[in-house]
Every structure is written in C-alpha cells, then in structure tokens.
C-alpha cells in the first residue's frame, strides 16, 4: 500500500478531484467547491453534493478566514518534513462559510501568540520538500492580518 | 438531539445474548509474527475458553478493513469444512462493540449458534515499511494526500493535536487534565502483567516532561504501536449458561455516525464524537444510565478521544470532562468511573479496541488484574472518526 508517486508529499496537481484547487492557487485564487443546486459550499470536493445530490462547481472565495485550530508539529512524521519542523499546521475556517475548514500552513507565525478565531488571509506560496528535488507547487497558505 | 449525525436502528437484543469465551495473545512490541498467526492464536484460545471445539464455531465476524483473519484462515488452520455464517463487519475498533449484535442477528435468524469475533494486528512488526506508520492507510486516500498531507496536517497525532487544541480553547481543558487520563491508564497497565507498559511507571511530571509530538499533543497522549490480538465467542445467554465461563450478557448495543463526512478536518462537531448518538441508544436498550456503569473502557488512540467520549456518553456534562477526570476519578480502586482498567491503547497495547471488550468481560468475571470491586456493568465505547459504538455488558442475573 506504500505511496508510489515520486513527488509525494507534494500534492498530485493532476488528480481530477483536487486539480482546480492548485490551478486556482497558481493564478492567485482560492477555489472551493460549491453546489449548483442548493448553493452550499461542499468541502472537501466530492462527486456530488452530499446534501442534495447537485453538481459541484469550483468557485473563487475571498481568502479571508479565521484560525479555527492549530498544532505545532515538532516530530517529522515523514522524512520530507525533517527540515521543516517545527511548523504550524492549521485549520482555517473561510468567512463565506466557517464550516469549510482548510488544512494549511500559517506562515511567519509565532506559535505562542496565536489566538483562537483570529482573522487570517490567504497567501499563495511555493511548497517544496528537500526529498523532492527541483519541484515546487504553488499552494494556498495563510498569514495573520494583525 | 444535535443534527450533525444519527444512530442506527438496532433491534432490541437485551439480555438474550452473551459473550461466553475470550482469548488473547501476548501483547508486545515488534514480535516478528504475522497478524494471521496472531489471529489464529487468539481464536484458538477464545474457543477453548468457551469450552467449545472449532467445529462448534459456525459463525465468524472479522475486519474487512484489516482482512488478516477470515473464514479461509479459520478453515485452513483448524482443518474444518463446515458451513459458516460470516461478516467482514466485525473485528476491532468501533466494530468490536457491534460484532455481538451481528452475532445476535445471525443466531436469531438461525444462521449460527456460536459466533467468533477475531481481531489481530502486527503494526509494530510492520511499522518500518509503512508510510507515516499507521497513517499510511490515510496517506493513500486521494483527498488527504492532496489537501492534508502536503500541509503537514498528517498523520493521526496531528489531527488529534488540533482537536485537543480546540477542546482546550472551547472548554478550558488543561494539559494536566489530559495528563490525568494518561497517568490513570498507566497506573492500570502497571497492575496488568500482560500490558506492554507493565514495568514502566509514569507520573504527571513524567507526562509533562515527555516529548511534544505536535504541540499540545505529547508522546504520552498517544497510543502505543503493538502486535497482538484477541477474540471472543458470542452465543445465546441460555446456551452460555451451559458453558464453563460465567456469561457476560449483552444488555445494550448501538452505533452512531457523524453525517459531516469521514474527514476529521471537516467534522462540524469538531470536539465531539458520534457517541452523542450511539451511547443513549445502548443505555436505553439496557434500561440503564451512565451512573449504573462500574467500569468503562473506550477506544483511546489519544487522550482527547477518551475525554470526548466520556462526556459524549453522558458521564459528565459536555465541556466539563477536564475537571471530571482530575485526581483519582478514573482509578480502578477508588475512582468514581474506573476507566480503561487494562491500560487502554495508551498503556496496555494498541490492538484497536478488541482487548477493551475482553477487559470488560474479565471485569464482570472478577478476573481482571486491576479488578473493580463488585463489577456488575461494564461498557465499551468504540470509535473510528465518523463512527462510534457502545456495548453494555453485565453479569448474568
């Protein structure tokens, strides 16, 4: 069952289920799936809306969010993270619908000063790992707004 | 009732079925054994404990998620050819609680008489070849692989560190309160000769000094990685009375689900478990309340999962579990709620809940190493993310 993709743990930008998330990031847009029929944001992306069965469309959102929760990762659980620890990985809740939580990095964050539900804003940054030479992917990360 | 989940409608099986035999292997660090070998040994011992022969076992529940021990393995090892009713919706985790219900249905429908449930695991042995250890099964899922892993939100210790943080933010739960759970479990493991951590003492200071894996989650908030397995035999209470061991009677059983998906990041009730939906059903079937429970075991991969289930099952009001678990509340001898009296996944062994059910049966028989005095009612709370389950067992009366 081991992961066979050579560029793991970079995201697979060709995976049809999530590709628009990364193509959006590359052009500076935070994209979230929304149901055409009931208008709800549906996250994570899925084949259909779990509530009403409607079709989902990738939709740009503002990139404004709040800090729902976070962890300061100190142990590298994968070799790719060995040089990155310690880092702050977070769940941020988008302003358009706080039920939509995005796993992301908080950049330049002093862990001790973080506050629950404080405002954060998207920033699009290249993600790379020393275990995946010569490759990077632009991804949505978040930064504090105060 | 909150609107983020639901419970299954289980038939009332109160009092009619019982666990008549239990079997355990050694619980160890890397043993070099395969899960199949471990499963066979657990099965042999459970069948013997029940006073039965392999040919008496005409039903088998096992784990479709971890298919190491199934009917083919049973037949090959025991050399049997008789028909067997079977279901892959048994084994460990949440299904360690509901396997007796599957057995009850099969027995009631005349498809089986004695149903064996088996769960083995050999992750300690397999660990070095897994991507992110037990996180591997998650890393292979496309959504997690693309939306979580690249962002360092992986594996399980990170999910639960994030849940733990939110529990602290919402309810004021403190590190010492999480520590109280870990220390109580270790105390029980120290009394249990079969526990992996039997010889290792741990104080609250030791807990605080432990390495931080993903702040606020420390090493000792986290379960072990172990080899081992267990099995048990379910039959009718009437039949169980003819067998050598005192029956552990199934009074209530239930399962509940979150409707907000299988991903931890997207659980609407982020600091709750589906015990909110499951536990009331099992207690209703049993005709009991949480205050009737003499010993509670819950699936405890991380301390926060114990705290959430204790409050979601109704042992204290939501949000107040931190204060509830302080001091000796969870101790087997003096506590208000004797809890994971074998040491749990944290300090006994990480065999995914099957040993929790075995511990409940031992407590009811009066043969547990950390025996709770006059234990008449023992409950197991199972958990696997968007699912929780509840099994209420009692002495035969």
Helix content of chain B: 25-40%
From the helix content, strand content and strand pairing of chain B, which structural class follows?
alpha+beta
Largest sheet of chain B: 10 strands, mixed
Low-confidence stretches of chain A: none
**Number of DSSP-assigned strands of chain B:** 12
Tell me the helix content of chain A.
under 10%
Give the SSE string of chain A: HEEEEEEE
Q: What's the count of strands of chain A?
A: 7
Strand percentage of chain B lies at: 15-25%
**What's the assembly state of these chains?**
heterodimer
Low-pLDDT stretches of chain B are: none
Mean pLDDT of chain B: 96
Structure description:
The complex is a heterodimer of chains A (146) and B (397). Chain A has 146 residues and is mainly beta. Chain A is built from one helix and seven strands; from the N terminus they run H-E-E-E-E-E-E-E. Chain A has a five-stranded antiparallel sheet. Chain B is globular. Chain B starts with a strand and ends with a strand. The mean pLDDT of chain B is 96. The A-B interface holds A 1-3, 8-12, 15, 17-18, 21-22, 43-45, 50, 68-75, 77-78, 81, 84, 86-87, 89-91, 99, 101-105, 111, 116, 127, 137, 139 and B 129-133, 135-137, 139-140, 142-143, 145-155, 157-158, 161-163, 165-166, 169, 211-217, 260-261, 263, 265-266, 268, 270.
Q: Which keywords apply here?
A:
heterodimer, A: 146 residues, five-stranded antiparallel beta sheet, two-stranded antiparallel sheet, B: alpha+beta, ten-stranded mixed beta sheet, 15 helices
Task: Set out the fold topology.
The complex is a heterodimer of chains A (146) and B (397).
Chain A: H1 19-26, E1 30-35, E2 56-61, E3 64-73, E4 87-94, E5 101-105, E6 119-127, E7 137-144
Chain B: E1 5-7, E2 17-24, H1 35-49, E3 59-61, H2 71-78, E4 85-87, H3 95-108, E5 115-122, H4 123-126, H5 136-139, H6 142-147, H7 156-171, H8 175-190, H9 204-209, E6 212-215, E7 217-218, E8 227-236, H10 237-240, E9 248-258, H11 275-286, E10 295-298, H12 303-312, H13 321-325, H14 344-347, H15 354-365, E11 377-383, E12 387-395
Parallel strand pairs in B: 3-4, 3-5, 10-11
Antiparallel strand pairs in B: 1-9, 2-8, 2-9, 5-8, 6-7, 9-12, 11-12
């Amino acid at each position: 069952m081991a992961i066979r993709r050579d560029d793991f743990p970079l995201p697979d930008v060709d995976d049809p289920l999530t590709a628009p998330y990364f193509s959006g990031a590359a052009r500076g847009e935070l994209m979230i799936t929304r149901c055409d029929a009931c208008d709800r944001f549906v996250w994570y992306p899925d084949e259909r809306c779990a509530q009403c069965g409607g079709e989902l469309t990738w939709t740009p959102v503002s990139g404004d969010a709040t800090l729902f929760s976070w962890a300061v990762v100190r142990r590298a659980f994968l070799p790719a993270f060995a040089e990155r620890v310690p880092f702050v990985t977070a769940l941020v809740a988008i302003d358009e619908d706080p039920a939509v939580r995005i796993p992301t990095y908080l950049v330049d964050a002093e862990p001790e000063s973080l506050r629950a539900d404080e405002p954060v804003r998207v920033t699009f940054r290249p993600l790379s790992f020393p275990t995946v030479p010569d490759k990077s992917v632009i991804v949505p990360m978040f930064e504090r707004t105060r | 009732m909150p609107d983020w989940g639901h419970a299954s409608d289980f038939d009332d099986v109160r009092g009619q079925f019982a666990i008549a035999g239990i079997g355990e292997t050694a619980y160890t660090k890397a043993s070099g054994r395969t899960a199949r070998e471990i499963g066979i040994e657990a099965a042999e011992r459970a069948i013997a404990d029940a006073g039965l022969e392999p040919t008496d076992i005409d039903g088998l529940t096992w784990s479709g998620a971890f298919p190491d021990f199934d009917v083919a393995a049973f037949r090959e090892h025991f050399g049997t050819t008789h028909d067997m009713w079977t279901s892959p919706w048994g084994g460990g985790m949440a299904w360690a609680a509901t396997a007796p219900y599957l057995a009850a249905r099969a027995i009631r429908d005349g498809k089986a008489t004695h149903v064996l449930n088996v769960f083995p695991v050999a992750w300690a042995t397999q660990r070095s070849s897994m991507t992110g250890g037990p996180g591997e099964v998650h890393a292979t899922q496309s959504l997690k692989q693309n939306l979580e892993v690249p962002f360092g939100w992986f594996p399980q210790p990170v999910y639960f560190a994030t849940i733990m943080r939110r529990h602290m933010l919402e309810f004021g739960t403190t590190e010492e309160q999480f520590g109280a759970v870990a220390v109580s479990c270790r105390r029980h493991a120290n009394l249990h000769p079969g526990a992996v951590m039997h010889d290792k003492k741990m104080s609250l200071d030791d807990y605080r000094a432990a390495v931080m894996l993903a702040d606020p989650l420390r090493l000792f908030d986290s379960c072990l990685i172990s080899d081992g397995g267990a099995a048990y035999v379910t039959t009718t209470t009437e039949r169980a009375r003819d067998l050598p061991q005192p029956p552990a009677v199934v009074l209530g059983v239930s399962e509940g689900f979150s409707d907000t998906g299988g991903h931890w990041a997207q659980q609407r009730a982020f600091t709750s478990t589906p015990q909110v939906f499951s536990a009331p059903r099992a207690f209703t079937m049993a005709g009991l309340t949480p205050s009737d429970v003499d010993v509670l075991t819950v699936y405890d991969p991380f301390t926060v999962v114990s705290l959430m289930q204790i409050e979601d099952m109704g042992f204290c009001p939501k949000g107040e579990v931190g204060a509830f678990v302080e001091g000796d509340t969870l101790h087997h001898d003096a506590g208000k709620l004797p809890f994971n009296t074998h040491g749990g996944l944290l300090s006994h062994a990480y065999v995914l809940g099957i040993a929790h059910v075995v511990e409940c049966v031992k407590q009811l028989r009066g043969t547990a190493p950390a025996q709770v005095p006059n234990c008449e009612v023992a409950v197991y709370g199972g958990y696997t993310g968007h699912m929780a389950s509840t099994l209420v067992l009692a002495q035969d009366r």
